[in-house]
Amino acid sequence: MRVAFQTALLSCEPIFVPKLRRSCYPHPSLPISWFPTKTRVFSPCRAIMAVPSRPTVQVRDNIELNETEKKIFDRLLGTVRHFGLQNQLRVAGGWVRDKLLGKDCYDIDIALDNMLGSEFVEKVRDYLLHVGEEAQGIAVIPCNPEQSKHLETARMRICDTWIDFVNLRCEEYCENSRIPTVQKYGTAEEDAYRRDLTINSLFYNINTSSIEDYTKRGIADLKSGKIVTPLPPKSTFMDDPLRVLRAIRFGARFGFILDEELKEAASCDEVKAALSAKISRERIGTEIDLMISGNQPVQAMTYICDLKLFWVVFSLHPKYEPAVPEGCDRLCVAYLDATWNLIQLIGNSTFNDEQRRLALYTAMFLPLRKTVYKDNKAKKIPVVSYIFRDSLKRKVSDAETVINVHYAFEKFLPLIPYFASNEDVLLTEVDWEREFVDVPLASKSRVLTGFLLRELKDFWRVALLMSTLVYPRNIDCTEDLLNKNFELERRRSLFKAAEDAVLKLGLDKIWDIKPLVNGRDIMNVLQLKSGGPLVREWQQKILAWQLARPSATAEECLEWMRETHSKRLRME
């Protein structure tokens, strides 16, 4: 075998080697068929090129509790002793993982081995009253299979921290649903094996102050930076396809490597079909939002793209047009990549969390901004709206903001030469509308920018960011983006020059400025008895006049109105 491997390594010829068994202690319930012995093709050159670098992960040997955690756990153990209960109290999942990684975590989930959470919460309340402490808010969240919540969860506040209580369980799923067909009290080991990932299957036993690793590889995978499922990945994903997206999210968040067998299962047609059929779009949208809002959104979307899940997650309307070109998913991720890096270079403080989140969505869907579908009334609707409202079930305001930026950012493009220059540049590309006729030439750039910012409000910097990505618009940057030739420094300089110019013009928060003249004043000057299109037209004219003359008064504006109206009447 060694000679064959060395020969193939030099010649780059594929060889057949036995498929190695998974290096995990098997759970007693696993069928022997999970350990395949058939051979697979192994190409040394391809394998060597595909192996990513291993992350270096610092994992603590034990968990150090802070003062609040000590107080919480003392009260829980006091409850057990006071009532003579036989419960083993375990903190499950993410809290254990994060504490071992040295990270703060305020999401404490207590797993109970022989009691419902609602029953134990009542005991805790009685104990706290017994020792003279007030029992804070208590709530029981019933199971709701339609919303993918299969267990009753009890919540209460202890030491100003919300704690969730659930029972250990084992469960089986039916073929076409996430709703378990069998659900019962389980052991800690059974509960660990039904978790999504080995790094999330760890317990901290409060009774014994010890870490429990029932899969025998949770800590090892944490140390080696691997994303692995406790049970075979395909059956794990078929039971609950949402685990595919959770694996991607945690892999991106921690910079961990996705297990090869996991990637193979995640990208198979059966799992993709199950993800579409069994998981509510709200749950998919929540996972995607966590990725986009996380610390590594590009890596998360790259995983989704590499695993052929992009159009499963961001599904399009069945009758969209024009056709989406091949490789559009990778171009979407390339725009996201460029924007993420540009934001880091410009400085995170330039954008708040909401602006940054929607900027990333806006960038990712830039290649789809001209793709539409027709509704029941034959009205053309941007397909991006369908993605937000139907594929991800996000807020309507998210869709509206992204679409508005897609529409408005191109208006920034002809302004960029003006912003980037210290000299007045003739804005020849701008289609000046009627309300700009009476605006002095030197003020037209301020007026146009002011109207644009009033349209975009707090998201004008996001639109400016998008315009720097596609500037100049007569040059196709697709290949550069796909090849990661982002020209970040040039784009940063354009953004900063434009931002500084807008601020120098005194236009930040211009959307909060009230018009000098109201509708009733306009009607009085025009001698109208009711409002209508003519009043709206004059409101736009007045706004343009006001933007061109930021120091003007209401009296001056009314005098200009009277003169202009009289002139129009004489001409008519």
TrEMBL record:
Q: Which UniProt keywords apply?
A: RNA-binding, Transferase
Which Pfam family is an annotated match for this chain, by its short name?
PolyA_pol
Limits of the Poly A polymerase head domain: 89-227
Q: Which family does it belong to?
A: Belongs to the tRNA nucleotidyltransferase/poly(A) polymerase family.
Record's protein name: CCA tRNA nucleotidyltransferase 2
What would be the name of the gene that encodes this protein? Answer: LOC103329795
